[in-house]
Amino acid sequence: METIYWEEEMETLPRAGLESIQLKRLQKLVERVYNTVEPYKRKMDEAGVKPEDIQSLKDIQKLPFTYKDDLRDNYPFGLFTVPMDDVVRVHASSGTTGKPTVVGYTKKDIELWASVMARALSCAGATKGDMIHNAYGYGLFTGGLGAHYGAECLGATVIPASGGNSKRQITIMKDFKSTVLMATPSYALNLAETMEGMGIDPKSLSLKVGIFGAEPWSENMREEVERKLNIRAVDVYGLSEVIGPGVAMECLKSSGGMHVFEDHFYPEIIDPETGEVLPPGEKGELVFTTLTKEAFPIIRYRTKDISRLFYETCSCGRTLVRMEKVTGRTDDMLIIRGVNVFPSQVEHVLMGVEGVEPHYQIVVDREGNMDTMEVRVEVSEGIFSDEIRVLENLTKKIQNDIKDILGVTSKVKLVEPKSIQRSEGKAQRVIDNRKI
Amino acid sequence: MRVEQIAVFMENKSGKLAEITSILAENNINIRALSVADTADFGILRLIVDDVEKAKKVLKSEGFTVGITNVLAVEVPDKTGGLASVLKAINNEGLNVEYMYAFVNKTGENAVLIFRFEDMDKAIDSLQKEGFTLLSSKVICSL
Known about the structure:
The complex is a heterodimer. Chain A has eleven helices and 23 strands. By secondary structure, chain A is of the alpha/beta class. Chain A folds into two domains: 8-331, 3-Layer(aba) Sandwich (Rossmann fold); 335-432, ANL, C-terminal domain (GMP Synthetase, Chain A, domain 3). In chain A, the strands form six sheets. A nine-stranded mixed beta sheet of chain A has the order 4-3-5-6-7-8-9-14-13. Chain A has a four-stranded antiparallel beta sheet with strand order 10-11-12-15. In chain A, helix 7 crosses helix 8. The longest helix of chain A is centred in the N-terminal third of the chain and has 22 residues, at 15-36. Chain B folds into two domains: 2-68, VC0802-like (2-Layer Sandwich), CATH 3.30.2130; 70-142, ACT domain (Alpha-Beta Plaits), CATH 3.30.70.260. In chain B, strands 1, 2, 3, 4, 5, 6 and 7 form a seven-stranded antiparallel beta sheet that branches. Classes of the chains: A alpha/beta, B alpha+beta. Chain A binds chain B through residues 379-381, 384-389, 391-392, 413-419, and chain B through 5, 7, 9-11, 37-39, 41-42, 44, 46, 63-67, 69, 98-99, 116.
């Protein structure tokens, strides 16, 4: 099978050439950010580093990290480097508390994003002849629109299916002869089951490959979805703070891991405790610097995702570094049906309900192929009533607030005081029973 | 004319009712009447006891969430149509019942109906106007 490239020269560049491009871009980026974004300048001054100190790629280690909290502190547009007139789009994802994390794009950023996503689609063997069924959610979430623009950039036909209404999606997939499916892996499995229920044999569809991401999934899940949908399943990685989907992508000949489009997104693996950069192949926290983005560049962003980097050339011919499938998080973020959820956000919602005390626990499970989230709330005197109706209205209110603010459906269960396990006086906030 | 009722939150788990009643028994608290309202996940146990303050204290110390609410205790003769006569009056007065339960007193002559109304003041006025006997906490405890 011949490898399909989107930008062959860049994707197969020998490392020395690639590093020289990366360094030039990094120097330009640091110079621009230092001179246009006050919070970056302040942090660099505090660290005693000036743009001219970046003389080699290794010098990136002199630059301070950027954290999700930096985005929150500069909410909504404080870290943008261009006037709002030049910003053509914003996206947002969940922050650690009430406020979302906002990112912006210039026209050129949107083009860049489309081109890296087109590269990603090419990694999966997609071409302009394909019918791409995009079941990522459209909206503030970067998944839907990111994949959409990439598919259009590739010249393929894109079906903007978004999430939900599985039966209709399957009918469309069958009738339109979709060849590529883009979705969260759990939604893909949900589609497979719905198909089974409708009595449709996946072999009767035209699907050949699935591009799955936005939530953790295991090799077992890959086998399951490949078998049930009769397709090849490949992994895509991205996060809105960096650009969205299209930061890294697995290829069909994968020697393990996803190709990081490192001419645009410079990856490092660090020890999350010390912040030291780790040698290639070692496991640690993934950190990204965007080398070419205009509106919202980011320097040494702590993703909190745990991974490894492999620098050997892949059997597909790409020289781009590969990142291992994300194997965990350094923080307590949960990904529920593709939605990022921080326990602190749930706490924030609960504290907004009068009388509720912060005694809660989040229980995550997987029923069939769908993640479920149950929020257990201890009933204090402040919210207790002798009337069922009052307590039921309370659980409904909390459920609605969580849905409104976090964008995820949950079940709220009232429990007796002190029934939530506490270890050494500290409550265990999250129980994740999913076997991924 | 109001009677204090104790309400206890319980998860829908086996042994909960036994646990609560045992705590009351160990503390020599006598239960006059009780009812359980339940959903799939939880229940609310409502009790008329002879010592409300003590019951609240001991249950709270065992970690339960306890509330005290006012209810009305209406005494009717324990004969056919006793309950119907009260409910008819309630309906005529346009009173909204949140919940109710009943018990028969020791002598077996009268039944006591426990009501929680949306508008308690209006309920007291209406029931007294209609000539029904409202029992006080003291009377209930001595039954």
